[in-house]
User: What shape does this take?
Amino acid sequence: HKTKKKNRGMKTLLIICTVLILVVVFFVVSDRRFHAAFVKMAEEIRIANKLTDPESITEASLAGLPEVVARYMRYSGLVGKKQISAVRWLHSGTFRPAANRAFFPIKGAYYVTANKPSFCWYGKISMAPGLSVAAFDSYYDGNGRMRIKIMSAFTLADEQSEFTDISSFGRMVTEMAILPSFFLDSERISWINYDS
Assistant: This one.
């Protein structure tokens, strides 16, 4: 009789361990798949950017720019250097979801391109041990998209709309400040002086 109880206990323990392993595998696979979608989009953006042999930025390159933009270009240290058409950076820090909430650790990656203006951002926030929220925002080919998932598995948001396109475009233009040679592109940007 003791042997049957012991066997039943072992079977129960085995079932619990198997379920726990399957849950862990599910979350690991979900996390890798969500991050892989970001990496794939970042690669598409990089390829579409079509790197060319960049020109050097000179004082003459700044002619015709509003004085505040030309000053920013000089301040950025770009004069005398080649134009930059793509930036990739990794970041970490803290994220605060609302003014009345605590700060949470975040790590992420960002790709921004200028030849074909686009961005792709991925961030993962650690809300508590074993609990994370991952986000993946992008603007590519005129389309914006924002995805947020708990544990990279359960969708909190997946927004694609005209509003998201417009919002993402605005964000992309703002992010070009880290790629200031973008503002030399007279085919995409025209400057209008409203003071005269």
User: Anything to note?
Assistant: The CA atoms of residues 104 and 175 lie 23 Å apart. Helices lie at 2-48, 67-75, 162-175.
